[in-house]
Design a protein that fits this description.
Number of strands: 0
Distance between the termini: 50 Å
Shape: elongated
Order of helices and strands: HHHHHHHHH
Strand content: under 5%
Low-confidence stretches: none
Number of helices: 9
Oligomer: single chain
Length: 260
């Protein structure tokens, strides 16, 4: 009986200690990355290529998701507002929802799977094949070479991708409204402008930058601390995607409380 009652308590205690230890290790890793950012000569040559890989190559999937999100938002808004609210409020719902919530969050979750997994797999493979040790032997700072340019590229390019996703989502909602909902362009634009404030865009881009920081830093952390063989790389990749996705949702709630 005692063992039955103490085992759950022991599991909770172990989980709490492991979680606290994980936060501590990540904090140490983050502080090391910040120090390595001073090695500008190492990471500056790699930044543009990582911006292209993380940002430009991620545009197709982000825009695909955003376009269909805008279409669905317009159709659902029309269904919800039927007979009760003027139809031009479709523009309000599409614009506000895409910019404030679905644009940054859905894009962030999609890029957590694409970018976060890619970073964790690349760096994890380099760790298990001792390429990181070789960098240290050659006198390179592995954090400045592998982590800093990826993190900076994420911070810079995630807002760019999200801005395009917001625009394409609204465009998809507009095309749907004028072709399937018997709305005119002036009606849709009226709704789009009704409650729009410039801070909405700033809020969306702030969230996107924080998502970029989280996804790239978490992916790099799990990749850098991979131990074992190919199976360990797979585990690190999975952990990076899961934790990044959870952090995106936490940050989404955080920014809503702080900025709204």
């Amino acid at each position: 009986m005692n063992q039955a009652w103490t085992s759950p308590a022991a599991w909770v205690g172990r989980s709490a200690l492991e979680t606290a230890g994980g936060f501590g290790r990540f904090g140490g890793f983050a502080s090391s990355v910040v120090r390595s950012a001073g090695d500008v000569g190492t990471w500056s040559r790699l930044l543009i290529s990582h911006m292209a890989r993380l940002g430009v190559e991620s545009l197709p999937i982000a825009l695909f998701i955003a376009a269909f999100t805008g279409i669905v938002l317009a159709l659902q808004a029309s269904y919800t507002f039927t007979g009760a609210i003027p139809l031009y409020f479709v523009g309000v719902l599409v614009g506000k929802t895409m910019i404030l919530e679905l644009g940054p969050v859905l894009t962030g979750l999609a890029l957590a799977g694409r970018v976060g997994a890619n970073i964790a797999a690349e760096i994890g493979t380099m760790r298990v094949t001792e390429q990181i040790d070789a960098l240290e032997t050659l006198g390179y700072d592995p954090l400045a070479y592998l982590v800093v340019p990826r993190v900076l590229a994420g911070i810079i390019m995630f807002p760019v991708v999200v801005a395009f996703a917001n625009a394409i989502g609204i465009l998809g909602g507009w095309i749907t409204a004028i072709n399937l909902l018997d709305m005119s362009t002036p009606q849709f634009v009226r709704g789009l402008r009704l409650f729009f404030v410039q801070f909405d865009i700033q809020y969306s881009l702030i969230k996107a930058a924080s998502f970029g920081l989280s996804v790239t830093a978490i992916g790099a952390y799990y990749g850098f601390h991979t131990m074992g063989g190919a199976a360990a790389v797979g585990r690190s990749t999975t952990q990076a995607v899961v934790v990044s996705s959870m952090m995106i949702l936490v940050l989404d709630a955080f920014w809503a409380v702080v900025l709204l």
